[in-house]
Input
Amino acid sequence: MEIHHSVKVGEGVKIGKGTVIEEGVVIGNQAEIGMNCIIKKGTKINQGVIIGDLTILGKSPTSNRKMARRPSTTLTELTIADNARIGSHVIIYKGTVIGKDTFIADQVSIREEVTIGESTVIGRQAMIEPKTIIGSNTTIQTGCYITADTIIEDRVFIGPCCSMSNDKHMASGKGLHTGPVIRSGAKIGNNATLLPSIIIGENAIVGAGAVVTKDVNEKSTVVGNPARYLKKDSDN
Amino acid sequence: MEIHHSVKVGEGVKIGKGTVIEEGVVIGNQAEIGMNCIIKKGTKINQGVIIGDLTILGKSPTSNRKMARRPSTTLTELTIADNARIGSHVIIYKGTVIGKDTFIADQVSIREEVTIGESTVIGRQAMIEPKTIIGSNTTIQTGCYITADTIIEDRVFIGPCCSMSNDKHMASGKGLHTGPVIRSGAKIGNNATLLPSIIIGENAIVGAGAVVTKDVNEKSTVVGNPARYLKKDSDN
Amino acid sequence: MEIHHSVKVGEGVKIGKGTVIEEGVVIGNQAEIGMNCIIKKGTKINQGVIIGDLTILGKSPTSNRKMARRPSTTLTELTIADNARIGSHVIIYKGTVIGKDTFIADQVSIREEVTIGESTVIGRQAMIEPKTIIGSNTTIQTGCYITADTIIEDRVFIGPCCSMSNDKHMASGKGLHTGPVIRSGAKIGNNATLLPSIIIGENAIVGAGAVVTKDVNEKSTVVGNPARYLKKDSDN
Output
């Protein structure tokens, strides 16, 4: 265990063997951190947060010469709000905010500048790209891939292994990158595929394995490849 | 290396640098444990078992306030039977039994109350949810998602990246959660999607990328989205 | 930190706390290695390489009694060429070569005897099987599964969560195992499924969620399940 002298540690905090806590980290009362974790500079862990083993918090983004997206050099510190639970073998980058009571399962990877609301669940091995916004009381199940610049509202359910993309032209350098928008209450079946910048309407349902190439109306259901309406609420 | 004084260590056991072994763990003869592992309280590692680096065995489940499934508080200890091989960066929970000669590859995640038979192979990054039963001589390839309450019998082959679900109503609180049943000798192609509670018959074949919404007869083949019979053995 | 006395360390090298560096490892000038990493025997890390935390380099393959593919016992050492960047929680096996300026993201798993060219990007949690060859300036996005014995040429783009297989008979012991061949400049949409030994022609496009069961002509576009031509360049 190696805690930098500048770290602020609240009352009743538990820190596991082998964990390294860098400069300027703030740890709230009753927080618990597992073994062999690496808490990078300036990370803010609020009260009652529980963190598993071998987890890395506050990682800085890097890139190689080819990558289009240059990492921001002015990221705020990673903040984990009250009573959130973070699993083992997790990696969360700088510039991200995890809401209170939110559950991040084992082996999850969350990039920089992501915002996750309150009481949301992110399943094991889910991968969340930069600049994505996820609401409250939402469930993103195990193995999902959430692309960059995606908006997922409140009370959304995304089944296991769903995949998204945000680049119509697949790295040709043309056009903007925009992920899907998934409105409140929408439900997406497991292993569904969502194309860039489509909108899944409020309370819409996407069937398991569907390949969604167009917007889906609110309260409607789509299935198949390409996805077609099984039930269409309206054309609004 | 930090081994609790109550740990029973067999003959010829090797334990890597930085590994922590908690109270009441039992390690059989000739077992090998890698570096920086965390072996939680009471885990039973039988003779000849080989474990990679940075692996966590015997983790206890947790939850947040939103999650429907409350973790059991009366789980038995994780047991790894004779000569099983466990990779690196693996996480296996309490209450699970790994059969003898079974191979669990790197970065796999196995939850509580899972039973895996003998000489089975679980590929890298596979994710296995609670209360699932997997037989002997079965192969679950890399990146598969096996949902909770699933039954997979003997000599089954599940190709890479297959996905399942166990909740028809997608977290609406209605109905029971039941995963698929996959009978002996069935083969599932890569990236197939299986819906909740369907039965894949003995020696049936599911094509790669198929989306299986109904039961599949034994010895029959289905392909497509939704999956349709390419070859149908009988209507029994 | 534990560095074997035989390790050759260049000028200006940084090595993180808790990292173990085994016999015969060679580390070039200005290389940086994170915390709690395990660098296995003989691994060659060239100048300017940057490696994250909790990463394992140079792992030796193992198997159980059931597995068809016996690990080679004569693997060369893992080599990471100049200025490559390797993420955190990564596992790369022996006998593999990572080209210069290549970027390997967090939680990636790369098996033995894989060759990756220069300035290529391998996204987070990608899984790459043995004996696969990947060219230069290629992007394999997050969560992709690249099967064994696959050839991916230069300037290829593979979207997130794509899946492949290399065994038509699904472990029946019949036939050769051959992965797909993906020619230069081809682009594969997210969550596409590729069957064994198919050829994706030069500059061809595979739509998101497509299930590709046959060869795809150069400069042509396929979509759907099974994939059909949306645009066909020629029948050559």
Notes: The first strand of chain A starts at residue 2 and ends at 3. Residues 129-236 of chain A form a domain with the UDP N-Acetylglucosamine Acyltransferase; domain 1 fold (CATH 2.160.10.10).
